[in-house]
Design brief:
Number of domains: 1
InterPro entries: DEAD/DEAH_box_helicase_dom, DEAD_box_RNA_helicase, P-loop_NTPase, RNA_helicase_DEAD_Q_motif
Protein name: ATP-dependent RNA helicase RhlE
Number of strands: 0
Keywords: ATP-binding, Helicase, Hydrolase, Nucleotide-binding
Shape: globular
GO molecular function, one term: hydrolase activity
Distance between the termini: 52 Å
Pfam families: DEAD
Helix content: 40-55%
Number of helices: 4
Largest sheet: none
Strand content: under 5%
Amino acid sequence: MSFDSLGLSPDILRAVAEQGYREPTPIQQQAIPAVLEGRDLMASAQTGTGKTAGFTLPLLQHLITRQPARQRASSGTRAHSYPDP
């Protein structure tokens, strides 16, 4: 299995390849599609098996592809900034 088959965007795939990663680990093979689908995830694996990338790569994809703030603002979503006390 390759990262290409997991549904990640070309930008993320390029970044992963530039870091030298060629194949997802077993935990990434299971976690990435689940997170991309918006499912809850609980995973356990040894240190160094790629758990962090397993949820971070889909999260980054979500942030890249989500609706820009200006479009959200026109749809009624608002964010407020309050001064520090």
